[in-house]
Write a structure and sequence with these properties.
5 helices; eight-stranded mixed sheet
């Protein structure tokens, strides 16, 4: 898959991306907003394992966000199953030097379009922590609707946190 988003692209991973992923993902400011499966510190070996797993999934649902020279972030889906088979959970992160440029809003719009039109999902949702106001803004600018706030829904870094529930419905 390859989708242009301005001067950036959403594309399939390559194992060569491991170096930039480990460099950018090894950032507590990113880790604090992701699930505990995202390691901290984040090593080159972690990046290689992640990329290998992403490339071996069928269909491929996790992609690099990249500029012309390197991967600078990640965006992808986890499909629901059983009665949730037409829903997909969206997840993403972006390297700190690229924050505040509108890259993620474009990426979320593009990948949501891909999920709805190409993967035939009916609903795409995201569950950012309520402390992640930047992600809230990204989702709202990308056309997602706030469905609610899940109180004390996650335990992250020693704290119980509320979580937003945003969705985009076909």
């Amino acid at each position: 898959m390859h989708r242009e988003i301005g001067e950036y692209a959403i594309r399939n991973w390559t194992i060569k991306d491991a170096k930039s992923v480990s460099k950018y993902a090894n950032n507590r400011k990113i880790w604090q907003y992701l699930r505990d499966g995202f390691p901290s510190p984040y090593s080159l070996e972690d990046a290689q394992t992640f990329i290998s797993n992403a490339l071996n999934s069928d269909p491929i649902t996790v992609f690099a966000i990249a500029n012309r020279s390197e991967a600078i972030g990640c965006i992808g889906f986890t499909f629901g199953n059983d009665v949730h088979r037409y829903s997909a959970e969206l997840g993403y992160w972006l390297a700190e030097p690229f924050w505040g440029r509108g890259i993620m809003t474009k990426a979320v719009k593009s990948i949501t379009e891909y999920a709805i039109n190409d993967l035939k999902m009916n609903r795409v949702f995201a569950e950012p922590y309520c402390t992640n106001l930047a992600s809230k803004k990204v989702l709202e600018k990308a056309g997602y609707t706030l469905e609610g706030i899940m109180k004390s829904n996650v335990f992250k870094d020693g704290n119980l946190l509320d979580q937003f529930l945003y969705s985009f419905v076909k």
